[in-house]
Amino acid sequence: MITPTASKFKQTGVGVRSVLEKTFNTGFIWLTLAFAVSIGLILSSIAIVIIMRAWPAIQTYRLGFITNSAWNPVIGKEKFGALPVIYGTMMSSFISLLSAVPLGIGTALFLSENFIPLQFRTPLVVMVELLAAIPSVVYGLWGIFVLIPTINPISSWLHNNFSWVPFFATPPAGPGMLPAGIVLAIMILPIITAVSRDSLASLPPELRQASLSLGATRWETIFRVLIPSAISGIVGGIMLALGRAMGETMAVTMIIGNANKISISLLEPANTISSLLANQFAEASGMQVAALMYAALVLMVLTLIVNVAADCIVTQVRAKYQ
User: Fold this and answer.
1) Measured distance CA(11)–CA(215) in Å, rounded
2) Superfamily of domain covering 64-321
């Protein structure tokens, strides 16, 4: 039985798709599927190539590559271990997060909660986003000529007065872990700020209005209502920034000192996986190439773990506050 409404749609053509539209819709679905599959294929091909190139080192050093600290590329005495660069990668990333997370979330709150008029907020938003457009080599040069000379007196004061603290136990050597962490913090700041600001701005206005109408102060509304409601997006931005910090190459290579050793002192030179690859890959040969590819595989696994952890955290936090 054809209802009057269906009869009307049939007469006017409203709600009835043509064969061309159906074909276009089906083709678009298959096209997007192809794009999605191609991303997986690209990622798989990258992993396969890295594993194939690293296979001689994997067979030779196995998991001892991750726990060994020696790195001797001399032919005949080849011995490779990635523990110092893994430590340097994780420590520099942790220092950058320790600095960038509170600053980024605070900046996002300042730019999203109408603390200042819109005509002043807009230029500040643009300035924060411009930080992401600066090339990493420029950050490295800024670190060499501005940051290191600026923090050297501070580092010397910390060493002279707090040398009993393991983090400041050695005298500053110029390039080191601390300036590398600070530069990384500046580089990942736009990511944390932009994602956090978008997460806060996307919240329904009714949340703020309801909280304020119940007698909550502005700061109570921010810390007890807005941040918990946007926490999944904020955590996602933090984890995305962590992945960016772990993979940064040029800026860190220029100011970290490139010393393959493990030291708890933040004032000593160190090294990261990305810096190791940048410094040695061009002149490497034989087993050294395989060892460097093995280090690249370790970095890829670390970033994969970070992304999986971020997804799990975001899912759990979203379920908690929904």
Assistant:
1) 57
2) MetI-like (1.10.3720.10)
